[in-house]
Design a protein that fits this description.
This protein is mostly helical. It contains 7 helices and no strands. It has one domain. It is globular, with a radius of gyration of 16 Å. The two termini are 23 Å apart.
């Protein structure tokens, strides 16, 4: 009897664990507002790279874990991450064909929606503070994406061969 090799899911979990740890890693005071939404970037990457394998369920669960780690409202980041994953899944064929600068703009828009949903839930609960720093994570994600996407491509390629 031969065993059929199923899809390897552990590279996804490694990337999500690294993203979750980067989300809660302490930063110096001036850089706290500029932290990219690492989990949303990883979810968008995996939704574009492997859309049939990693969908909304894993994105929602990863967002739920982030809610627990940050101690905020349960479901806030789960909703925002799932919506970001859905947008990436919806446009994954276009995103794959875009040159890196167009991918950066599109991913920046997806992260902008994700950050707006986090802000919206904060507003509903009365914790919203409107300032220019709400846009800083979106700009940081747009700056990081051209570096992170090829790095994740290489890393995932190596992890799949192990």
């Amino acid at each position: 009897m031969s065993a059929v090799a199923g899809p390897r899911v552990w590279p996804y979990f490694v990337c999500v664990l690294v993203a979750l740890s980067l989300e809660v890693t302490p930063l110096p005071g001036g850089m706290i507002g500029w932290r990219p939404p690492w989990l949303a970037l990883v979810v968008v990457y995996w939704a574009v790279a492997h859309p049939r394998r990693y969908g909304l369920g894993p994105a929602w669960l990863a967002g739920l874990v982030l809610d627990v780690l940050k101690g905020g409202i349960l479901g806030q980041h789960a909703l925002a991450t799932a919506v970001a994953g859905w947008l990436a899944l919806r446009f994954h064929q276009r995103l794959r064909l875009f040159p890196i600068w167009q991918q950066t703009v599109a991913v920046g828009a997806i992260i902008g929606v994700q950050q707006f949903l986090v802000f919206w839930v904060d507003g509903i609960t009365g914790d919203a503070a409107l300032s220019w720093q709400r846009a800083a994570p979106v700009l940081a994600a747009a700056i990081i994406w051209p570096l992170a996407a090829p790095l994740l491509d290489r890393l995932v390629g190596r992890l799949h061969t192990i």
